[in-house]
Structure formats: structure tokens, C-alpha cells
Write a structure and sequence with these properties.
Aminopeptidase; Aminopeptidase i, Domain 2; about 25% strand; Peptidase_M18_dom2; protease; zinc
Length: about 425
């Protein structure tokens, strides 16, 4: 697989993953095609050496692993972590708003989204819908309206002359999107629209009543290669589906000899404190069922986690927002993220291991440290390191417009990180 094929497959994954639920569904299908067996959390597990498995929780977090031929107690486990969620707008439980003949939807901001770029976009909706069938059984369905069905028009500058100087966005009043023209008497309830959508996607679905849902708005503009020389990729949800895709490809393509694991958690953008988030017990419970609670401390002592989450590339219009010696460039390699206050979990040993692998493959890498007078973000790396006690490296592909509705990264950096992570998963020892 070369860089062009890698990006083509990435674009396909991004297009088919408008929500964490769809991303996990897509990853599960890829894993099954590669010979991974699905496990059920509620069932007893009988794991064998040299086999490959995966398990999901809440349909939005996935853990895939290969038991390998080597004993995890003596060889450890090579782990990769990422997250499936991205900042977006989520539809509220009672969303119907009727004003001036327009049917609008109440939405809530999920995560630290940049709100201005959501205006004047062709938006669709997707997510998970829970319903009862005609036999009064609870069911779930994934839905994706696919085409543009809502939009958030900007207010004309003639009605806000200071828009380019002082306009701010009130998330309660300024961003409810327009769904259609209809008054309250003639409008179809939103839950009925969802029931109709389920039936449209699956004519055999037995939907008696929609009870609840978790729906996100998303931009329908597809991923693209941009730049006169095709230097960049642009898409929604690069943070952090790009890392999920890289980790997935590395695990699927790696030699299955060594014990290895990929975890892609939901809810990173809102703090990771959930049953399926990185602060939750999911990964710990999977490891206990794989290697046993008694042996887990010894396994962890020989293991390592590489937490992959995109980094801030140095923007040419805002170069002063970076430390002068630590401004990552697009297409100059993945970025080792360092913070001495432990907002990132990287230490000298984990960074050195990555650099050693990267140099052995003659591939580039960079370092990022936030300006000393600015706050530093974080990711699942410190949370996983704190929960498991596993040595951890935080790394990511540099990008622009993080948390915007459409983000941009270098066209070559993702493939570089994939190559290094694949080699990492095949190491016999990581000491």
C-alpha cells in the first residue's frame, strides 16, 4: 500500500463515518474481513494464542487485539490508542422549533467546536436511534440521511454591520438549523421523521415507535486532496478519525506474531469520563479477561501505549502562537507531543523508542511543546497511562483548523505514521 492508496482508503472511511457509531461499524467490518472474531462482553471468552479478536461497547468504542504467539507476560503488549468522537452539533431530545413558518431543530454543542464554520454549510444528520418494534422489543438502528437536509444560514452583513469585527455566536439562539418550511400544525414530529428514515434505509425494519436517539449534524462535503501540488487533505473529523484509521491499518497489516491491541474510545472531546471513555474501565476489563488480573501488572510493566491524536501544525498566518523551536510543519512528519505538566504522557524513553523506529525506516518526525505562556490541551494518553500504569507516548499528525467543521492536514504525514506504527506492533521487545 502506497501513500495514494492509503489516502484513498482514508477518504472512503471518513465518508462512511459521520458519527462514532458509524466509525465503529466501519472498523468492525474491516476487522472481520481481516479475520478478527467478534466477542460479546456478556459472554464467557475463550481466547487462544495466535488469534485476533475485537469487542465494542455502546457501539461507539472498539478494542481490537491479537493474542500473538509470544507470551504477553514476557513480551508485553504493543498498544495504540485513539478516539472516535469529534466536536459537532447534537440534536436535542425535544428539538422541534417553529418560527415564522420554519421548522427548526434545537441542537447542543458537543465538545469544543469552532462554531462559525458551521454556518452556510450543506448539513446532514446521522447517528443511533432506539425504538420499540411491534412485539414491544427494544431495538437500535444506525441512520444517515446522507444528503443535505438542514442548514444554518448566516445573518446578512446589512443587518449586522459589525459582523466582521465583533460577531460572536450564541449557541442557544444563533445555531438552530432550518429543516424545512412548515408550521406547527402541519409539521411531522421529529421522531416520526426518524422512524420513516429507518424504514427507508431498511424496508424490513419493524418500527412501532421511536423512543430516543443520539444524532449529530455533519457537513456533506466529501474529503478532498487540495493544493496546487496535492500537498494537503481536507475533511471533517480528521481529529481524530485519521488516527483511528492509521491504527486500524497498522494492526490489520501487522505481522500477527506479537501481542498487540488497538483501542478507539468515544467521549475524548468531553473529558473521557464515561463507561466507554478512556477514563472508564473498558480497556482494563478487556486486559483482565485476556491476560488475567493476577498477571496484568507484569504484562503492563513490559507494554507500551502509543496514543495517536492530531497535533497543531504551525499556521503561517499565526506563527506566533507556537514556540519558536516547536512549530510542527505539515508534511514534515508526525509530531511527538511533550508537556512537562503531564497534559501529554510522553517521556524520554517512549519518545526515544519512536525516534529509533522512525530513523530505522528513514522517516521524519517532529516535536511539539506548547508556548510556555499558553495552556496545553490533552488527550487519552495521560488518562490511559494513569489508569493502567503503562508507559505512553503521545503523538499525532499535524493539522490546521482543529475542531472546525472541516480540517486540513498534510497529504503524506498519515502514511508516515502508519508505517512507523506497523513496525512498532511487530517489535519482539520494547524494553
Amino acid at each position: 500500500m502506497d501513500n495514494a492508496v492509503f489516502n484513498s482508503k482514508l477518504f472512503d472511511f471518513l465518508k462512511q463515518s459521520p458519527t462514532p457509531y458509524h466509525a465503529v461499524q466501519r472498523m468492525a467490518r474491516r476487522l472481520e474481513a481481516a479475520g478478527f472474531e467478534r466477542l460479546d462482553e456478556q459472554a464467557a471468552w475463550s481466547l487462544a494464542p495466535g488469534q485476533r479478536y475485537y469487542v465494542t461497547r455502546n457501539d461507539s468504542t472498539i478494542i481490537a487485539f491479537q493474542t500473538g504467539q509470544s507470551d504477553p507476560v514476557t513480551h508485553g503488549i504493543r498498544m495504540i490508542g485513539a478516539h472516535t468522537d469529534s466536536p459537532c452539533l447534537r440534536v436535542k431530545p425535544n428539538p422541534e422549533i417553529y418560527k415564522k413558518g420554519f421548522y427548526q431543530l434545537g441542537v447542543e454543542v458537543y465538545g469544543g467546536a469552532l462554531l462559525n464554520p458551521w454556518f452556510d454549510r450543506d448539513l446532514s444528520m446521522a447517528g443511533r436511534v432506539s425504538y420499540v418494534d411491534s412485539h414491544d422489543r427494544l431495538r437500535d438502528a444506525l441512520v444517515d440521511f446522507a444528503r443535505p437536509v438542514v442548514t444554518i444560514p448566516s445573518l446578512a452583513i446589512h443587518l449586522d454591520r459589525e459582523a466582521n469585527n465583533t460577531r460572536t455566536v450564541n449557541p442557544q439562539t444563533d445555531i438552530p438549523p432550518i429543516l424545512m418550511q412548515a408550521d406547527e400544525k402541519e409539521a411531522v414530529p421529529f421522531r416520526q421523521l426518524l422512524a420513516d428514515r429507518i424504514r427507508a434505509e431498511d424496508p424490513e425494519a419493524d418500527v412501532a415507535k421511536v423512543l430516543d436517539y443520539e444524532l449529530s449534524l455533519y457537513d456533506t462535503q466529501p474529503p478532498a486532496t487540495v493544493g496546487l501540488n496535492d500537498d494537503f487533505i481536507a475533511s471533517a473529523r480528521l481529529d481524530n478519525l485519521l488516527s483511528c484509521f492509521i491504527g486500524l491499518q497498522a494492526l490489520v497489516q501487522a505481522d500477527p506474531t506479537q501481542p498487540a491491541l488497538l483501542v478507539c474510545n468515544d467521549h475524548e472531546e468531553v473529558g473521557s469520563m464515561s463507561a466507554e471513555g478512556a477514563q472508564g474501565p473498558f480497556l482494563s476489563s478487556v486486559l483482565d479477561r485476556w491476560v488475567g488480573a493476577a498477571d496484568r501488572p507484569r504484562v503492563i510493566a513490559r507494554s507500551m501505549m502509543i496514543s495517536a491524536d492530531n497535533a497543531h501544525g504551525v499556521h503561517p498566518n499565526y506563527a506566533d502562537r507556537h514556540d519558536g523551536n516547536h512549530g510542527p510543519l505539515l508534511n514534515a512528519g508526525p509530531v511527538i507531543k511533550v508537556n512537562n505538566n503531564q497534559r501529554y504522557a510522553t517521556n524520554s524513553r517512549t519518545a526515544a523508542l519512536y525516534r529509533h523506529i522512525s530513523e530505522s525506516l528513514d522517516l521524519p518526525c517532529q516535536s511539539f511543546v506548547v508556548r510556555t505562556d499558553m495552556g496545553c490541551g490533552s488527550t487519552i494518553g495521560p488518562l490511559t497511562a494513569g489508569n493502567l500504569g503503562v508507559r505512553t507516548l503521545d503523538i499525532g499528525v499535524p493539522q490546521f483548523a482543529m475542531h472546525s467543521i472541516r480540517e486540513m492536514a498534510g497529504a503524506r504525514d498519515g502514511y508516515v505514521l502508519y508505517q512507523v506504527l506497523r513496525r512498532y506492533l511487530e517489535l519482539e521487545q520494547i524494553d
